[in-house]
Amino acid sequence: MPVYRIAGLNIAMEPVYRETIDRLQPYLSDGGAVDFTVTVDAAEFAAFSVQSPIPNRPDLDEGPYLYTQICRKILAEYDGFFFHSSALEMDGGGYLFSALSGTGKSTHTRNWRRRFGDRVTMINDDKPIIRKIDGAFYVCGTPWMGKSDIGCNRTAPIKAVYILQRGEENRAQRISPGAVFKQLLEATLLPKTRDNMQKLLDLFNDLFSQVPLFLLTCTKDEEAAQVAYDAANA
After folding, report:
1. Which of 107, 161, 182, 217 is least surrounded, with the fewest CB atoms within 10 Å of its CB?
2. Is the domain of 61 the same as that of 156?
3. 3 state SS for 131-168
4. ∠ CA 95-104-150 to the nearest 5 degrees?
């Protein structure tokens, strides 16, 4: 069974469809013990496929199904969680921008690339994983990167997290997690059990005790990238 290196873990799984195989190929592991195995439960996958945006297309649904199983396992046992955001690395630090789809996450991170050039590397434009490793938090690239399909197999220590909203001016204000708790929960995959929900809340608490959280009101102008960067590096 092939083994893939995702979020610092060796994950064994055997995709069937070419779409999934091709997407996972850059993440093939070059060795090491398997951390866990993901298998497909036929009945569960059938139900998942029926409820997908394009029903009954198992070739398109296999990847998201596997990713969901990966995220649930990582939360349960490996101190990590999915976080719907656009994530980049700059000068060795990871910056994450979360918002509802269509708000402008990709536009904003594009402005970082315009503003700062080769100093910026996109880690994942839509579906990164956050993990706590040896007490520190990292953002990790995954094979699933949203419509833009921008990202790479890369991990970076998190420098700042932003909740993005459109506005008439560019302004970054540091906030507490409680002020945007609903948005934070909407940005992740909610657990099925009480124990795992508590793990998620504990991870949020630990993350934002280490990493600043900002409410970023911004325009589509490139200057917004400079405002966001300056807030985290003041």
Report:
1. 182
2. no
3. EEECCEEEEECCCCCCCCCCECCCEEEEEEEEEEEECC
4. 60
Are 95 and 13 contained in the same domain? no
Model pLDDT for residues 131-146, shown as the tens digit of each residue? 999 999 999 999 999 8
**Which residue type occupies 154?**
R
What is the C-alpha to C-alpha distance for residues 138 and 130, in angstroms, rounded to an integer? 6
Distance CA 3, CA 34 (A): 7
Query: Do residue 98 and residue 179 come from a single domain?
Result: yes
Could you tell me the residue range of the domain that residue 126 belongs to?
A: 81-232
Say how many Å lie between the first and final Cα of the chain, rounded. 48
Categorize the per-residue pLDDT at 201 as very low, low, confident or very high, splitting at 50, 70 and 90.
very high
pLDDT digits over 84-123, tens only? 999 999 999 999 999 877 677 888 999 999 999 999 999 9
Q: What is the biggest distance separating any 2 CA atoms in the chain, rounded to whole angstroms?
A: 52
What are the tens digits of pLDDT across the range 11-49? Answer: 999 999 999 999 999 999 988 999 999 999 999 998 888
Q: What is the CATH number of the domain that holds 145?
A: 3.90.228.20
How far, in Å, CA of 171 to CA of 154, rounded?
29
Q: CA dist 61 to 9, 49, 54, 211, Å?
A: 23, 6, 8, 34
Choosing from 49, 78, 107, the residue where a domain stops is 78
List the helix and strand counts (H, then E) for the chain.
Answer: 7, 12
